[in-house]
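Example S7 (structure tokens).
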């Protein structure tokens, strides 16, 4: 009897990257909410379910040493995942030119040498959740992602934690009817953008072979994909250490309070971080990992969570 994907023995490998790597910190941006069906933390292990060009894959990553990682992978996409694993762990990331003058950033960089910029090489997998997160509260966006992946994804291969799912394929995203997006609390504009991107998935996936700046520019030619969305994709799929999420509801304020003790707007943030090119996103990641959001005074009402299902 032929073994099923779930019964098959995992592909088992140990990967070393040049320089230290912290698995949890490096892969954290790939998680979309605490109940993301594609990303789980289980003690010291990070579990992820993904869709490679060659098929679905589940993988379990654990820290094996300061510069080494142990990975178990199940499913048809296992071989491709292992080929991409060094880049996923930041092997292509070069922080050597990052020398921030601000003492808070310099200290964060010193304390977290293992924070690296991941490069998944999977565009649609980062693009769909970024579109869902456009102009809405994170709680609502995470819930929409969870609903759609659970409803239209497929069970993660192998012994994945309960409830883990592989994201839908481009073909499935294209065919999700409008009322299903509505049930997931996604307004028509974002739903149309997701379908439009899924229709162009083949060409969008090829952007990983371009220079990151040109790839970001190409992403923005898709109607509904702006500067913020392109940056969010570039950070994850392209490993772009300079992709600054301009237009984020909170980011400029966080950067201002964390580094200057007062708020900034987008223009001010861009000007202040300009000397850090090509590491502006790296600087933001360091601020987030060291609790930059806690520097913002708690005042005024929180952003409302919009429920489009009532419209």
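Recovered sequence:
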């Amino acid at each position: 009897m032929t073994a099923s994907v779930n019964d098959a023995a995992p592909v088992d490998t140990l990967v070393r990257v040049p320089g230290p790597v912290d698995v949890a910190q490096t892969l954290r941006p790939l998680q979309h909410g605490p109940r993301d069906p594609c990303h789980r933390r289980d003690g010291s292990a990070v579990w992820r379910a993904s869709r490679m060009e060659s098929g679905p894959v589940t993988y379990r990553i654990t820290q094996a040493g300061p510069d080494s990682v142990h990975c178990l992978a199940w499913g048809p996409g296992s071989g491709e995942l292992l080929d991409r694993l060094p880049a996923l762990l930041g092997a292509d990331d070069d922080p050597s030119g990052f020398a921030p003058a601000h003492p808070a950033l310099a200290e964060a960089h010193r304390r977290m040498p293992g924070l690296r910029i991941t490069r998944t090489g999977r565009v649609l997998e980062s693009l769909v959740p970024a579109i869902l997160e456009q102009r809405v509260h994170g709680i609502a966006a995470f819930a929409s992602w969870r609903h759609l992946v659970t409803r239209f994804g497929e069970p993660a291969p192998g012994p994945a934690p309960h409830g883990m799912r592989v994201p839908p394929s481009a073909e499935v995203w294209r065919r999700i009817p409008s009322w299903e997006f509505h049930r997931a609390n996604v307004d028509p504009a974002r739903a149309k953008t997701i379908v439009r991107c899924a229709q162009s998935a083949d060409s969008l996936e090829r952007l990983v072979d371009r220079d990151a700046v040109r790839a970001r520019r190409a992403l923005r030619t898709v109607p509904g994909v702006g500067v913020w969305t392109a940056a969010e994709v570039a950070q994850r799929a392209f490993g772009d250490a300079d992709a600054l999420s301009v237009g984020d509801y909170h980011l400029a304020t966080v950067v201002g309070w964390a580094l200057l003790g007062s708020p900034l707007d987008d223009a001010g943030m861009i000007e202040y971080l300009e000397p850090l090119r090509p590491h502006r996103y790296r600087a933001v990641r360091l601020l987030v990992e060291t609790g930059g959001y806690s520097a913002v005074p708690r005042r005024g009402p929180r952003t409302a969570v919009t429920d489009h299902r009532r419209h």
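Notes on this example. The chain is about 40% helix and 15% strand.
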